[in-house]
Amino acid sequence: MSAPKIAMLGLGSMNGAILAGLLSGGHPVEQVVATTRSASSAQAKAEQYGITVLAEESAEDANLQAVRGADVVVLGVKPHQIVDVCAQIKDALAPRAVVTSVAAAVTVKMMESALNPDQPVIRTMPNTPLSVGLGVVGLAAGTSTTPAQVQQVSELFAASGSVHVLPESQIDALTGVAGSGPAYAFYLAEHMAAAGVEMGLDPELAADLAAQTLYGAGRMLVQNRGSADAAQLRRNVTSPNGTTQRAIETFDDAGMAATIRAGAQASARRAAEITEQLSSRG
Known about the structure:
- Belongs to the pyrroline-5-carboxylate reductase family.
- There is one protein chain.
- The protein starts with 5 loop residues before the first strand and ends with a helix.
- Strand 5 (98-101), helix 5 (108-114) and strand 6 (121-126) form a beta-alpha-beta unit.
- With 282 residues, it is an alpha/beta fold.
- It has two domains: 6-167, NAD(P)-binding Rossmann-like Domain (Rossmann fold, 3-Layer(aba) Sandwich); 181-267, ProC C-terminal domain-like (ProC C-terminal domain-like fold, Orthogonal Bundle).
- The chain has helices spanning 13-24, 39-49, 62-67, 82-89, 108-114, 147-158, 171-179, 181-198, 203-223, 230-236, 243-253, 256-281; strands at 6-9, 32-36, 52-55, 72-75, 98-101, 121-126, 135-141, 161-165.
- An eight-stranded mixed β-sheet has the order 3-2-1-4-5-6-7-8, with helices on both faces.
- The protein has twelve helices and eight strands.
């Protein structure tokens, strides 16, 4: 079977990450078309990725051109723009085209209400490590989306990460853990490096130590799934009364475990708040 034609409306950080993952996974460039706002951005992105990129600045119907004949349409615009874009493109879509949103807080119902009846819809929550083939994405299907279409979209993402099909009611929780999660890891690396500098290390060395340590620990977590979870791996490197135990005790005394959980929960609550705000606008 030939590769599905994909239309990517918007090439911001998330759609850019998805596109990079798709292309690195072998998806043919001739089967991808994208749109951006400005002509200069369209030219730069076309040169960067080797795909066709249309500019709304040059053609008001750029989005309509992009989605005609597409099998999968990936909406990478801002959350508050998703419904308007759905309404704009609805009559240019093939009935089989799966409209896929990567915007936080935009529900299946919001998209379905702006599209023609029975248009397949999938809500996703990916994270940016998709761009290096190590991402996570959650998928929630709409009411008219078939299992085969869910499988098709899952396979597109699977080339660059771990895909999880789940009820839409769990998407906000996934956002709190995985959607926002890369920032938590970067935050940890940032402050590990800062601690190294405070203890006399060269800043570049300290940054490399933090980055490589998190990268290696992450790979250990993935490779040991099924035999050892995060808690066990932590215990494996925490010798009684040793250096690591002293650090972990310090984290515990500072309430770090509860803070991490609270942060993830705050992210999920914020996603729900944005959903409510978007709903009230409609």
